[in-house]
């Protein structure tokens, strides 16, 4: 298989961690006789320095023509970097918002996985996480409260603010389909999260999700109210496989789920649309505090590359090889600083990448 991947190393630790992910992709290509062609483009602070804009039209064109995008992270120290003295539309994050919009990415996937080897970092009691957990949160990215009309006006003697929330059947259907497709590649369970006891958008959400579920008879569907889901994530995280939810609920629940795993350097993410195209990146930022020191954990980015193999290129075995290699390296006791604990062997960014490649 031959694929064209647009690579955005970005700022801070971005170049270091993406380099390791590319090493792993190359190892996969070699083993299975695939060809991955990389085209590097600039986005974020490095693009501001080179071209005066966080994402050039030229770079966007290359991303659009590729089969998928691998992204490190963008941005600098938000109090000291000169990038943050620019107007908001010229700052590093504006590049990220623009590329998500221009590429039509409407579904954000964030796995929360607890490695047996890293259980010590999980803030939950051990009996709740016995055997680990492995869930995937799928958040709608382009609708709902964050994109509705808003206003603040004077009513009588006080100010009143309004934010409106809307979802169309087609917006719900396309993300629900993606969610069920992903459940088919996993443990075949979808928990659709809403607030259908109060909100009309949630009642429509539930109705459309049930319609879509009929096309996936092998997948078990359950509905859960968002407030209950927030509790269940810390009460019994093992019950979840795919959590399917709208924009704001997903924003909050995915952050909650990531904290339950306890290790930010280990969490991958993907943004998808209807076709196989996707943008894959770690959940964390550019960590300018540790950039250039060969101490960043590259695993979140390597796991994101594994998601690219599975969800964009349909290479399930290849993705599993990468995940298994990571698991083995952890079992052998190798750790970067952020996940280091007593009795383990400390390694740098490059060494961690090499170890994963060698497995
Ligand atoms: P951050 O995620 O970059 O860092 C938070 C803390 O976690 C820091 O102490 C950092 O050293 C540590 N950390 C993060 N990733 C790590 C890794 N792979 N290995 C070891 N330690 C790691 O979040 P922060 O500090 O709030 O933001 C820094 C910059 O990143 C800002 O400019 C922010 O806007 C940007 N950012 C970019 C994102 C993106 O490109 N998608 C997402 C989030 C933040
Ligand atoms: Mg958030």
Automatic annotation (TrEMBL):
<protein>
    <recommendedName>
        <fullName>3-isopropylmalate dehydrogenase</fullName>
        <ecNumber>1.1.1.85</ecNumber>
    </recommendedName>
</protein>
<comment type="similarity">
    <text>Belongs to the isocitrate and isopropylmalate dehydrogenases family. LeuB type 1 subfamily.</text>
</comment>
<feature type="binding site">
    <location>
        <position position="227"/>
    </location>
    <ligand>
        <name>substrate</name>
    </ligand>
</feature>
<dbReference type="InterPro" id="IPR019818">
    <property type="entry name" value="IsoCit/isopropylmalate_DH_CS"/>
</dbReference>
<feature type="binding site">
    <location>
        <position position="251"/>
    </location>
    <ligand>
        <name>Mg(2+)</name>
    </ligand>
</feature>
<dbReference type="GO" id="GO:0009098">
    <property type="term" value="P:L-leucine biosynthetic process"/>
</dbReference>
<feature type="binding site">
    <location>
        <position position="139"/>
    </location>
    <ligand>
        <name>substrate</name>
    </ligand>
</feature>
<feature type="site" description="Important for catalysis">
    <location>
        <position position="195"/>
    </location>
</feature>
<comment type="function">
    <text>Catalyzes the oxidation of 3-carboxy-2-hydroxy-4-methylpentanoate (3-isopropylmalate) to 3-carboxy-4-methyl-2-oxopentanoate. The product decarboxylates to 4-methyl-2 oxopentanoate.</text>
</comment>
<dbReference type="Pfam" id="PF00180">
    <property type="entry name" value="Iso_dh"/>
</dbReference>
<keyword id="KW-0460">Magnesium</keyword>
<feature type="binding site">
    <location>
        <position position="227"/>
    </location>
    <ligand>
        <name>Mg(2+)</name>
    </ligand>
</feature>
<dbReference type="GO" id="GO:0003862">
    <property type="term" value="F:3-isopropylmalate dehydrogenase activity"/>
</dbReference>
<feature type="binding site">
    <location>
        <position position="255"/>
    </location>
    <ligand>
        <name>Mg(2+)</name>
    </ligand>
</feature>
<feature type="binding site">
    <location>
        <begin position="285"/>
        <end position="297"/>
    </location>
    <ligand>
        <name>NAD(+)</name>
    </ligand>
</feature>
<feature type="binding site">
    <location>
        <position position="110"/>
    </location>
    <ligand>
        <name>substrate</name>
    </ligand>
</feature>
<dbReference type="GO" id="GO:0051287">
    <property type="term" value="F:NAD binding"/>
</dbReference>
<keyword id="KW-0520">NAD</keyword>
<dbReference type="InterPro" id="IPR024084">
    <property type="entry name" value="IsoPropMal-DH-like_dom"/>
</dbReference>
<feature type="site" description="Important for catalysis">
    <location>
        <position position="146"/>
    </location>
</feature>
<keyword id="KW-0432">Leucine biosynthesis</keyword>
<dbReference type="GO" id="GO:0005829">
    <property type="term" value="C:cytosol"/>
</dbReference>
<keyword id="KW-0963">Cytoplasm</keyword>
<keyword id="KW-0560">Oxidoreductase</keyword>
<dbReference type="InterPro" id="IPR004429">
    <property type="entry name" value="Isopropylmalate_DH"/>
</dbReference>
<keyword id="KW-0028">Amino-acid biosynthesis</keyword>
<keyword id="KW-0100">Branched-chain amino acid biosynthesis</keyword>
<keyword id="KW-0479">Metal-binding</keyword>
<keyword id="KW-0464">Manganese</keyword>
<comment type="subunit">
    <text>Homodimer.</text>
</comment>
<feature type="domain" description="Isopropylmalate dehydrogenase-like">
    <location>
        <begin position="4"/>
        <end position="356"/>
    </location>
</feature>
<feature type="binding site">
    <location>
        <position position="100"/>
    </location>
    <ligand>
        <name>substrate</name>
    </ligand>
</feature>
<dbReference type="GO" id="GO:0000287">
    <property type="term" value="F:magnesium ion binding"/>
</dbReference>
<comment type="pathway">
    <text>Amino-acid biosynthesis; L-leucine biosynthesis; L-leucine from 3-methyl-2-oxobutanoate: step 3/4.</text>
</comment>
